[in-house]
Amino acid sequence: QKQVVEFGGGLVQPGGSLRLSCVASGINLRVYNINWYRQIPGKDRELVATILFNGVSDYVESSKGRFTISRDDAKSTVYLQMNDLKPEDTAVYYCNVPTLALWGQGTQVTVSS
Fold it and tell me: With contact defined as beta carbons under 8 Å apart, do 51 and 43 qualify?
């Protein structure tokens, strides 16, 4: 069964950090591009960061300089390191394999004092 599962969400104070993990099973992760999305209640899901199969990464403007996407294909895992978190980063974060139209169940990130 092809699936991706997100881990690592939680409650963090403004300025804090979290590292999200996206663990894949049933697929050869190394050949796929991977996205991280987030969704705030009442809003559309928005792209946060992308990492290509060759390791090249890209970020939306709001993530640049604060978030880092990386991959460890040996562990079938993609990471999203989030630093200097802000209340507006509060959302459910999703891992996505676009070629397979595969989504995880999401992990909640709450940034609040």
Answer: no
How far is the C-alpha of 51 from the C-alpha of 44, rounded, in Å? Answer: 21
Q: For 83-113, how does the pLDDT look when each residue is reduced to its tens digit (9 = 90+)? A: 999 999 999 999 999 999 999 999 999 999 9
CA angle 28, 37, 45 (to 5 degrees): 130
| C-alpha count within 13 angstroms, C-beta hemisphere, residue 12 | 22
Confidence of residue 68 (pLDDT cuts 50, 70, 90): very high
Tokens of 6: 């997100």
Supply the mean pLDDT for the chain: 96
Structure letter (DSSP) for residue 7? E
Counting Cα atoms < 13 Å in the Cβ hemisphere of 51 gives 21
Q: Residues near 60 by Cβ (< 8 Å), separated by ≥ 6?
A: 46, 47, 48, 49
In this structure, of 10-14, 38-42, 75-79, the range with the lowest mean pLDDT score is: 38-42
Element (H, E) at 113: none
